Each structure stands twice: as C-alpha cells, then as structure tokens.
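Section 5: illustrative case.
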C-alpha cells in the first residue's frame, strides 16, 4: 500500500475557527468544501477539519470527555510560538514545568478544545 498523504482530522462545532487556527499555526491555507476543510501547507494536505455540530471538547487530562489524540509540535523558538498560537485562539491548559535542561513542553487547547503541546529543547532557547 502506498499512502499519498497522511492527515490528522479534528472534529469541530465551529469549522471556520478550527481550520483558521490550524492554518495559522502551520502557515497554510484553508480549502473549504462544505462540512469539510483541509489545511494545505505548500499545496499539500496537512490537517483536516470536519464539522461536528455536537462536538464535546475533551477535558485534559482526566475529564469525563477524555482526550484521544494530541499533537506535539517541536518548535525552535518557544516564546515566538506561544505568542503565535495564543494570538490565533489557543489557551494554555498546563504551563511548562521550567526544566533547567533537556526538553520541556506546554499544553494548550485549540479553539475546539483539542489539546496539543508546544515542545522544545531548553538548551536551544534564547537566553
């Protein structure tokens, strides 16, 4: 079997907000097709968003609607990435632990409530 594209798809009650968020994070564009949006990056499908009017956001980490999948996005400049995702509508679910070395991460929710992490190597962050 040959896979042409690998796409993660998010359910969302607000299709436009969710697809705009991921297009902004990935520096892509939204291709709208009714109840389905595809976020394209450099013309290639990267993230799908499908309309789910009754979507219940997961409650990270242990709520009644538990998360089933999340993305870890490794970034080069955490402060810049944090500013970008929050400006696009992300909310912080768990602040970074403040590890003095190694790697660290901060947990966010996208506009539909899906958790994702910004991750980075502490030694690579500016001073």
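Designed sequence:
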């Amino acid at each position: 079997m040959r896979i042409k594209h690998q796409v993660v798809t998010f359910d969302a009650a607000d299709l436009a907000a969710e697809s705009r968020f991921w297009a902004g994070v990935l520096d892509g564009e939204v291709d709208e097709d009714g109840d389905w949006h595809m976020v394209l990056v450099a013309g290639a499908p990267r993230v799908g968003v499908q309309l789910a009017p009754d979507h219940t956001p997961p409650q990270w980490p242990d709520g009644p609607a538990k998360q089933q999948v999340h993305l870890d996005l490794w970034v080069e400049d955490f402060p810049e990435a944090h500013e970008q995702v929050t400006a696009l509508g992300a909310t912080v679910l768990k602040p970074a632990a403040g590890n003095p070395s190694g790697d660290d991460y901060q947990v966010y929710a996208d506009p539909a409530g899906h958790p994702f992490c910004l991750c980075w190597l502490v030694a690579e962050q500016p001073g």
